[in-house]
Write the structure tokens for this entry.
Amino acid sequence: MEESRFIAGQPVPVGTGKVSVQRVLCANASMMTGPGTNTYVLGDRDMAVVDPGPALPDHTDAIMQALADRPLKWIFVTHTHGDHSPGTSALQALTGACVIGMAPPPGALYQDASFAPDRLYQDGERIICDGFTMQLIRTPGHVSNHICFLLEEDGLLFTGDHILQGTTPVILPPDGDMGDYLASLEQLRGLPLQALAPGHGEIMREPAQVINTLVRHRLRREQKIVNALQNLGPATLDTLVLQAYDDVAEHLLPWAKKTLLAHLIKLLRDGRAAVDGDATDAAAQWAPNRD
Ligand SMILES: [Zn+2]
């Protein structure tokens, strides 16, 4: 990774074709956000932003600087986690831009309930901007209201947390769903993609390879969970995670448990696992389906 390119607040050109794209990194680096959240600034005249990031005045200032007095007309939001959407209201108040995204379902955990898009948007809808077009690609999985945006002119897909660089996203059930996640990855294969612009990390220039690797990773993990169920079942999440995620550092296990549960719910639905009690209860015992 080119570390020098990851300096918070400094706009870096990352365009991969005709349309000007700048990345403004937010100073919120952490275990969950890697180098920090990527905000993307698009265009030359009337401008667009993808993912304003958290509500941090310094980050909003850095976005305004990158806009360089050009009008901001569109704010695209991939999903409503705290590191992607809460900066929207300040930016919208300063610029009057139209807000494009999906509100979180009521009561969903870890979601920014303040997020309010201008209207309801449909899958496949195309937003004509100033010299470029963004297409909405619904990609539920990480969370149910996740959207990727395709910059059509350059085949550049803004992937939010659907596809990350350098790590795999956590799937957060019950709102996040492993079956949906895999279907959303498959659906991307049909798009004319040239590059991926993730919510965290560097631009990826081999989209097909990245998607293949991610799908393989998920299916390998699923097989490892099936094996652990056969070896240990009936067993709780706490027991299963140690065997099914024996390659993951201990401090990441609480997050691995969430994705493990997402896999188990998919296996339950596929008729390959059984559960005694409520699937979302930590004390629930999981076993292979013997039927
Ligand atoms: Zn997220």
Notes: The chain has two domains: 3-205, 215-288. Residues 79, 81, 142, 161 surround zinc ion (CB under 6 Å). Residues 10 and 24 are 6 Å apart (CA to CA). The helical segments are 57-67, 88-95, 178-188, 207-232, 237-244, 253-269.
